[in-house]
């Protein structure tokens, strides 16, 4: 009995130490970000935003520890410690606790180890690798089985797109067909009004680009979700670094950005649409037809959405696509080069558009294009 108590006490001490370490790191990140804001906007007084809810700490720690750790047995504490120590770099087990609408243990755990300013469960979305999604009694409290919903800023003003007529027709993406979701089922796509049968080539294909050069062949996606990462081994998925290892001497900007991809993104086909989970330490920038206002985008180039680190966003909403009736008449008015106007573009670390020096996605150092099937 003493051995088990000693092991339990040791695990709790380790979890507390990990929480304090991440609290300090998060606070330092916030301060660094605010300093950058001050340098960029020295005519404004931003320092008042420092402090205020620092990560993971504050009063009431003992009460929080009682709420979180007491219900966990030794095996659960070990699984939680493994998840916290790994910070999402490898697959980890679910840590299940009984659902409690008042206490919301998964929210508490995410507050302690991921986002101190998290307030409500509605701000969270379960990662696709979590296995407890349909459990009515228990809920997963592994903080790395959750992602935070992206709340986009007000979109920037539209910018004038650059003419890309210098690209040859064969450089254009293979899929320029209208994409529509039938009956809100993601696997049922249509091209030119005809229903597709079961697709043997996967539900989408990925094309990796470094600026205006496509690297490697298209990568078909068959599983419901796929990890796309840099050179960090994190289970099955697509390593962009390995894909690009045979490319010729990329520019320094590409090499630097490639090093920032890290854990990259998880691309997931779910009941309510296509989701992108940003797992890296840097933002990604995404664009798709259903992220735009068709009334605005009909005569302008794409306006990307910034997705901060550890956040997620729905990049293709079947309901919105059906209501807006996106199609070739709309897409043909968009001339952004060889990028398929119906595809989803995801740029790592670097944005494009009116707020950035890069006016189009093909100026971004490292980006992927998600071609929803069927392609023609």
Report on this model:
It is a single chain. 26% of the residues lie in helices and 22% in strands. With 376 residues, it is of the alpha+beta class. It folds into two domains: 2-149, SMAD MH1 domain (Smad3, Chain A); 169-372, Tumour Suppressor Smad4 (Sandwich). The strands form four sheets. A seven-stranded mixed β-sheet has the order 2-4-16-13-12-10-11. Strands 9-8-18-17-14-15 form a six-stranded antiparallel β-sheet. A hairpin with a 2-residue loop joins strand 12 (265-270) and strand 13. Helix 1 (2-40) runs parallel beside helix 3 (74-86). The protein is globular. The protein starts with a helix and ends with a strand. Mean pLDDT is 75; it is low at 43-59, 154-199 and 328-336.
Summarize, please.
With about 375 residues, the chain is α+β, with helices and mostly antiparallel strands. Helix content is about 25%, strand content about 20%.
Key descriptive features of the protein:
single chain; 376 residues; Smad3, Chain A; Tumour Suppressor Smad4; 6-stranded antiparallel beta sheet
Profile the largest sheet.
7 strands, mixed
Question: In percent terms, what proportion of residues is strand?
Answer: 15-25%
CATH class call of the largest domain: Mainly Beta
Sheet with the most strands: spatial strand order: 2-4-16-13-12-10-11
Question: What is the fold-level CATH name, i.e. the topology of the largest domain?
Answer: Tumour Suppressor Smad4
CA-based gyration radius? 22 Å
Compute the number of strand runs. Answer: 18
Give me the CATH architecture of the largest domain, please.
Answer: Sandwich
